[in-house]
């Protein structure tokens, strides 16, 4: 468990590093993408937005829709109350579907601010930027559908308003047997909470501990012999 | 007897192993006289210093053509001659209102349809007078339970990412540039947008609190009633007018300002921390004029690309300059823990503002060298430029214009009579003060000494450093057209500015020579320190051993 944890740290750090260094290229590229002509199939109005809704195009390796599923997800601060250290919440944090299932999500926002139900990691040939996205304005309901690919996988679902994921709006969507569990999904998995770096006074601390233990040990030895 | 031997042994050992770096200097000199200079760390040979490698261009290329003068949705947007420009689609939406532009423009702007709604022309003079602005709160460089890297990153200078809270226009979609990036999108930045309304407008400002702590908006220096029309509090002060807006809640403030001027808006919850966390922005009330459709928000302050009718009459250009200071000990609290209760503990009492001071100084949300990308004032000779200056920080600001003497036309938004307007080259702004400056670039030996790259900065030493390292801080410049290249980078005659784009320069990691001891040497010192501690322990134990019988015997 521990080794796995530190492996993940390395991976995460590596990923962030890559994201950082290639930022300039990404920026230019994605802005073209975002501001360009990729907004077909998008609903965008006073209720909120639905991005990449797909009810009929099958992903590769899916010959037919395996099942039709419907989830109703409520969002708001009320749903965070039972999760320690969280402020925002969903009514459900774990979703399961068979491979090639068609999933309809109805997203109800009970707060007076925007919230999102954003799923990442879908194939980019079918879903622009690999995501399915619902965004509901204060008190509004939006819904959309997507068809999951044939592979077993666990997808990240979150609200990407700054700090909403960190403060509770994080869920996982498991297809088939699923992939690796995600960290810090409220009421599902534990927080990661990396230890902070050792303070610079650590050397001093080592010295003091050594001093005390030496005193204790030699005191014992001397006491026995005299 | 054994104890005495141990004592002698311990004393000798600890004396021998006493870390030499802790010897008093006098002893070190005496030793050096007898035994020669210490050979442990020798002065390295002189070498050419390698410049840190540039990890980013000084002035990124304007791939999307945002710097150019352009017309979008019928709005004529002036060119930006500095390197980095605001998104012109957002500017067009801020002029027309997000309810009056095409979906395509909104998508390109990243704004929601209700972010800035412009309504009726109440006085029939050709511009909308009902303005409804929706602000959210974004946390930049915040912490995460899954990562040590900050989330929604916004660097004020290379590698410097203090935690921040900012008011932001209501936007849609992801908070970052894209899913693979950890960099906040361009609408989410410091400072909070400069807001512009017209005298007499019916203004509604809704705070949609997307943040996890309670906040308010207080309109400092803007004419507003203490109570709303419905009798609810409207001053944004939790001690005086109303309860703060909780996480996930919203509240609308109402104002119809009768007087004009440069003012200030900020959160008034726990003002000792929330304002300095970044919940602060400029609020400008422009004079009422016909056909005066304003650019109601200026993202990240800076150059106003669509100026008001009144400014058009008297000035060639207008800039919003918001100065502030940051104490990273306060701002980085949000990176230390993910638990809002612990964050609140630290903000309330763990951090003591009374015994702290700032380490970063920004102009329009950036410190040098990034400030050079966005905040240069680019001018031709013989221009009249309006600088609206706010010091939103906790420390004083001594704003110095190299090569120019500017004139203070307005103080805290109030126009000064012509004969009492002060012309000088250093303007002192205490916390929260505003000064409107007229910068006249006529080469007459007083107002301007002629074309060049003239620094514009805070003259209080600290103000031009990044955590004590110069050059940094709120440095910007007044640059004449002949001294700026086509990409918007100043043509300077001094040192290569590239070295300041290396994060290690400001992390104190840059070494002017090979002074770092080798790791083998560090290990030796560490072992020696351990040995010293063990020997000292032996001495203490022997002393106790020797003294014990005496103490017992006396009893
Ligand atoms: Cu949310
Ligand atoms: Cu606040």
Could you characterize the architecture of this molecule?
The complex is a heterodimer of chains A (226) and B (555). Chain A has 226 residues and is α+β, with helices and mostly antiparallel strands. Chain A folds into two domains: 38-175, Sandwich (Immunoglobulin-like), CATH 2.60.40; 196-226. Chain A is built from three helices and eleven strands. Chain A has helices at residues 2-21, 23-35, 202-225, and strands at 43-45, 48-51, 68-76, 89-90, 94-97, 102-109, 115-120, 131-136, 141-147, 153-158, 170-175. Chain A starts with a helix and ends with a helix. The model of chain A is unreliable at 1-40 (pLDDT under 50). Among the domains of chain B are: 2-50 and 512-554, no CATH class; 70-308, Immunoglobulin-like. Chain B has twelve helices and 27 strands. In chain B, strands 15, 16, 17, 19, 21, 22, 23 and 25 form an eight-stranded mixed β-sheet that branches. The mean pLDDT of chain B is 91. Chains A and B meet through helix 1, helix 2, strand 2, strand 8 and helix 3 of A and helix 1, helix 4, strand 4, strand 5 and strand 6 of B. Bound molecules: copper (II) ion (2 copies).
């Amino acid at each position: 468990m521990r080794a796995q944890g530190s492996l993940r740290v390395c991976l995460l750090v590596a990923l962030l590093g890559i994201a950082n260094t290639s930022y300039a290229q990404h920026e230019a590229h994605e802005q073209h993408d975002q501001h360009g002509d990729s907004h077909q199939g998008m609903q965008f109005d006073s209720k909120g937005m639905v991005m990449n809704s797909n009810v009929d195009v099958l992903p590769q390796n899916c010959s037919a829709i395996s099942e039709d599923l419907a989830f109703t997800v409520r969002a708001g601060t009320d749903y965070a109350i039972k999760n320690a250290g969280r402020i925002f919440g969903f009514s459900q944090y774990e979703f399961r579907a068979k491979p090639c299932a068609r999933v309809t999500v109805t997203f109800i926002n009970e707060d007076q601010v925007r919230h999102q139900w954003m799923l990442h990691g879908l194939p980019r040939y079918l879903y622009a930027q690999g995501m399915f996205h619902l965004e509901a304005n204060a008190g509004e309901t939006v819904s959309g559908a997507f068809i999951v690919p044939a592979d077993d996988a666990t997808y990240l679902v979150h609200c990407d308003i700054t700090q909403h994921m960190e403060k509770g709006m994080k869920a996982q969507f498991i297809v088939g047997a699923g992939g690796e569990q995600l960290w810090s999904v409220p009421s599902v998995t534990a927080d990661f909470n990396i230890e902070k770096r050792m303070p610079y006074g650590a050397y001093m601390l080592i010295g003091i501990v050594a001093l005390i233990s030496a005193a204790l040990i030699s005191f014992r030895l001397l006491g026995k012999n005299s | 007897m054994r104890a005495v031997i141990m004592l002698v042994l311990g004393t000798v050992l600890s004396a021998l192993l006493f870390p030499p770096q802790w010897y008093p200097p006098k002893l070190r000199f005496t030793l050096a006289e007898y035994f020669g200079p210490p050979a442990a760390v020798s002065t390295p040979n002189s070498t050419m210093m390698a410049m840190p490698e540039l990890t980013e261009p000084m002035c990124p290329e304007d791939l999307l053509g945002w710097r150019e003068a352009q017309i979008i949705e019928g709005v004529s947007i002036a060119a930006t001659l500095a390197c980095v420009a605001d998104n012109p689609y957002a500017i067009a939406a801020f002029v027309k209102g997000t309810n009056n532009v095409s979906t395509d423009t909104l998508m390109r702007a990243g704004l929601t349809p209700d972010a800035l709604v412009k309504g009726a022309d109440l006085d029939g003079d050709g511009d909308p007078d009902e303005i409804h602005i929706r602000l959210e709160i974004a946390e930049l460089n915040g912490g995460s339970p899954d990562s040590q890297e900050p989330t929604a990153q916004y660097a004020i200078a290379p590698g410097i990412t203090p935690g921040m809270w900012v008011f932001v226009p209501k936007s849609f979609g992801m908070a970052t540039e894209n899913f693979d990036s950890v960099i906040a999108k361009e609408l989410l930045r410091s400072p909070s947008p400069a807001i512009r309304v017209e005298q007499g407008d019916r203004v509604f400002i809704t705070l949609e609190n997307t943040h996890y702590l309670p906040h308010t908006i207080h309109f400092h220096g803007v004419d507003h009633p203490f109570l709303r029309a419905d009798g609810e509090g409207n001053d944004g002060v939790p001690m005086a007018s109303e309860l703060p807006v909780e996480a996930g809640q919203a509240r609308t403030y109402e104002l119809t300002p009768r007087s004009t001027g440069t003012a200030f808006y900020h959160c008034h919850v726990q003002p000792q921390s929330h304002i300095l966390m970044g919940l602060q922005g400029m609020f400008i009330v422009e004079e009422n004029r016909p056909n005066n459709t304003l650019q109601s928000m200026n993202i990240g302050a800076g150059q106003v690309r669509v100026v008001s009718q009144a400014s058009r009459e008297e000035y060639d250009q207008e800039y919003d300059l918001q100065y502030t200071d940051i104490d990273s000990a306060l701002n980085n609290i949000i990176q230390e823990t993910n638990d809002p209760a612990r964050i609140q503990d630290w903000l309330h009492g763990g951090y003591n503002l009374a015994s702290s001071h700032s380490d970063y100084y920004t102009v329009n949300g950036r410190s040098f060298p990034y400030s050079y990308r966005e905040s240069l004032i680019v001018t031709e000779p013989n221009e009249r430029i309006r600088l609206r200056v706010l010091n939103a920080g906790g420390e004083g600001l001594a704003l110095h214009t190299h090569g120019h003497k500017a004139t203070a036309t307005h103080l805290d938004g109030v126009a000064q009579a012509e004969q009492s307007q002060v012309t000088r080259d250093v303007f002192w702004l205490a916390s929260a003060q505003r000064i409107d400056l007229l910068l006249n670039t006529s080469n007459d030996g007083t107002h301007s000494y002629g074309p060049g790259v003239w620094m514009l900065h805070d003259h209080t030493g600290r103000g031009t450093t990044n955590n004590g390292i110069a050059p940094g801080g709120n440095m910007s410049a007044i640059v004449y057209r002949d001294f700026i290249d086509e990409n918007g980078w100043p043509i300077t005659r001094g040192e290569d500015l590239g070295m300041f784009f290396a994060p290690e320069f400001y992390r104190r990691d840059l070494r002017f020579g090979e002074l770092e001891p080798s790791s083998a040497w560090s290990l030796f010192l560490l072992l020696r320190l351990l040995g010293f501690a063990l020997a000292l322990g032996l001495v203490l134990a022997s002393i106790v051993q020797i003294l014990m019988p005496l103490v017992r015997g006396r009893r």
